[in-house]
Amino acid sequence: VRVFYRTLTRSRLTASQIQRHKASLPKNFSDYESIKHDFNPQIPEYFNFARDVMDKWAEKEKVGQRAATPALWWVNDRKQEIQWSFEELGFHSRKLANVLSGLCQLNMRDRLFLILPRIPEWWLVNIACLRTGTVLLPGTSQLTARDILHRLQTSGAKCIITDESIAPLVEDVASQCPSLQSKILVSNRNRDGWRNLGDLMNNVASDHECVETRSDDPMTIFFTSGTTGLPKMTQHSHCSYGIGLTVNGRYWLDLTDQDVLWNTSDTGWAKSAWSSVYAPWIQGACVFIHHMPRFDSSTVLTTLSSYPISTFCTAPTAYRMLVQEDVAKYKFKSLQHCLCAGEPINPEVMKKWREATGLDIYEGYGQTETVLVAATFKGMKIKPGSFGKASPAYDVQVVDDDGAVLPRGEEGNLAIRVKPLKPFSLFTEYTVVKAFVVLTPEYRSHDKEQLVKDLKTHVKKMTSPYKYPRKVEFVEQLPKTISGKIRRVELRKREWGQI
Ligand SMILES: *[C@@H]1O[C@H](CO)[C@@H](O)[C@H](O)[C@H]1NC(C)=O
Ligand SMILES: CC(=O)N[C@H]1CO[C@H](CO)[C@@H](O)[C@@H]1O
């Protein structure tokens, strides 16, 4: 019987067809409709990802209820390697949390600016900030001194953690950033004016009590790329990512605690939090990192064949480079699920990748302000040129410029419904200072543009530079209470109503 069965299977399906079929089946949900139907996340009043998710996985590790994969697996091109379990991540990040709340005197809601390449410390800072309730602002290593100045001033960050390549740029601008109190360097060497992270961590306790954060407390701030005007600060709460990215981790990435996820993206970009922190760790999966100085096709293919990477995501441009190599000569024994995001993928590249690996590429789309907005989920038919269907996190529609939903097949704007209820997995706000100004009679005839400039300069001089208003609006009068207090709520409502 066994022989017969084997022959039958072989004659009907090739090994790669079987592999492809298996890989296209979702592991932890049945189909798109069931996801849409069952999606009903509960938002507790208090939530902290370090305590409520990471430390829970550490407990499961202890009693053998989690697969034996590490939680973080880091390699570089000099064959150095680090593997940390959730327990070890907990140990190191608690020490770092003690550095932040002790020596750096960071209180809840204070802001920390982080610019590091893909080194393990980047992840430790992420987790330590959760433990202390510090709001994390990640930035890429490509920032200039001017960019750094703008970010430090706008955010009023009290602490910066970076490496030797960025330290001189910070030194150039630090005197113009009055709120910046601690500068911490990640390096084997010491540098004047900086404290060394390694030394600091050697001298603190490893027990730390995680702070109580409300689900809607601010957790992280990303600067938008600033395509139009100066970059804006986009704030996410503890639950918007910590719970909201379940949609990415469970449904799009289809991860479990046995999976190893590799996204080749750099740290600092808004969405490295998506794929390299929250989405995989919600699912208990392993985050794999290769600290390559730059994208190199043969390094990527060799890495995919020598480590048990089950889930792989890279940019469409990168896939285009990969399929130019002789991909079929590599054996990806563990690879089961491939994804892309960032720009549309060319159907030709998808086809070549499938021919070489037997695997499809699943597209996803989202923005700094959101979690996954739309995607091709496992088990869904892939239609080249389409990025799939709306994610269960949002009610997504194509609308015209007035917000009216358009009929099927018509081009328009992609919109997310925010009324009557704003989805919890949407960013909280953009934290822009706006001034409403009532002019006295002698100023009414003045040139308004010049007045705006003068006001901004005045505030910069009188208070900290970062506090100056980015927006100024002249009004006839301010809404006041009977006792004469200004009703800021009303101003705020008016402002949001306009957007
Ligand atoms: C990988 O990182 C890029 C850039 O940050 C992001 O656009 C993409 O969504 C990430 N992939 C996954 C699977 O989260
Ligand atoms: C690993 C994982 O995501 N497991 C989930 C699979 O789905 C069930 C039912 O929705 C969840 O309870 C598990 O947590």
From TrEMBL:
Gene: ACSM3
Organism of origin: Myripristis murdjan
EC number(s) from the headed UniProt entry: 6.2.1.2
Entry-linked InterPro entries: AMP-bd_C, AMP-bd_C_sf, AMP-binding_CS, AMP-dep_synth/lig_dom, ANL_N_sf, Mitochondrial_ACSM
Domain of life: Eukaryota
Residue stretches making up the AMP-binding enzyme C-terminal domain: 430-485
GO molecular function term, any single one: medium-chain fatty acid-CoA ligase activity
Protein name, per record: medium-chain acyl-CoA ligase
First-listed, main subcellular location of the protein, grouped into a coarse class: mitochondrion
GO cellular component terms attached to this protein's record: mitochondrial matrix
Keywords, in A-Z order: ATP-binding, Fatty acid metabolism, Ligase, Lipid metabolism, Magnesium, Metal-binding, Mitochondrion, Nucleotide-binding, Transit peptide
